[in-house]
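Page 37, continued from 36.
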């Protein structure tokens, strides 16, 4: 289900939302996961998130959230040369600043 398609389309038209990627892993002939789409767009994601004060909304299962957080954090660590402690602080900062927002369930 694409519950908020109408609202997302309106946000794009108004310039509130500049990019959205959807991954419907249970629809269509190919299985596509969020993290697969992120790999393709990671440079843009990191630029928007870290250089342009962008936001990432994760909505879905805990398993999906863990996979998305892992690819995102690994990409940030690699791009900026962060050790585990620095990465942990950076991820917490992004969550505290509401740049990473999670709505995850069981």
């Amino acid at each position: 289900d694409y519950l908020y398609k109408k609202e997302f389309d309106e946000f794009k038209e108004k310039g509130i939302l500049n990019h959205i990627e959807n991954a419907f892993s249970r629809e269509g002939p190919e299985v596509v996961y969020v993290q697969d789409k992120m790999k393709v767009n990671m440079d843009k994601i990191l630029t928007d998130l870290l250089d342009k004060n962008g936001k990432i909304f994760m909505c879905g299962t805990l398993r999906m959230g863990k996979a998305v957080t892992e690819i995102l954090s690994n990409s940030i660590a690699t791009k900026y040369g962060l050790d585990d402690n620095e990465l942990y602080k950076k991820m917490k900062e992004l969550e505290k600043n509401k740049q990473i927002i999670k709505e995850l369930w069981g």
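The mean pLDDT is 92. Flag for discussion at group meeting. The first strand starts at residue 56 and ends at 61.
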